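QA checklist item 7 of 12: single-chain prediction sanity check.
[x] sequence parsed
[x] length recorded as 221
[x] structure emitted
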Amino acid sequence: MNRTWWLYVLGVAATFLSFPYPPKLLALLAGEIVVILMIWAGLWFGAHVQLGSSIPSLRRAVIALLIGIACGGIVIALLPLAGLQSRIIKEASIPLWQWLIIAFDSATLEEIVFRLFIVSLVVWLINVATAALSGRGAAEGSGTHIGIWIALVISALLFGAAHLNRWIHSGPTVIVAVILVNGLVAIALGLLYVKWGIEAAMLGHFAGDVMLHIIGPHFFI
């Protein structure tokens, strides 16, 4: 934890801010414990497959932010094609400070769950299975190209499914569109994680949310 304490701080802060005020203490405590365990497990799995935490250089941080902005812009362009712009229009009435908190929460908690934990876990499991089948025994080392892409696709599908809550009764076309749009963004964020670490993925996610939810509504009103 000595080199990655900031992830725990970010996770604890984002979990606290995600609860309605005043939070129910037992529910908040349970949420904090789950997030801390997911960070620990994600870092553990990641350390065994050369993934995890890495403070990006200024250049990489800027690129991650630009990639996030580009993803947000692409989603904005695709929304009318799937008839999903109605939700974005409604978000124009939400105060800026509130959306910044939501963007911080989403960027932190969703990256912890879907990239740090799930991608690292799947790559590690594939390494373990590959090592067992080949008789090598140990499962240390970076993930294979195929293994990483399997992990990214699984994470992307789960990420897309997690964003269905408001669209689950909108019909199969909308459901598929939501999964695909969010899945494509998840692939981009997953690649940031694999290449540059979880912090770069968080920056990209935050920039994408700002572009989509704070700037995006003004394209339709």
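[x] summary fact logged: The mean pLDDT is 91.
[ ] second reviewer sign-off
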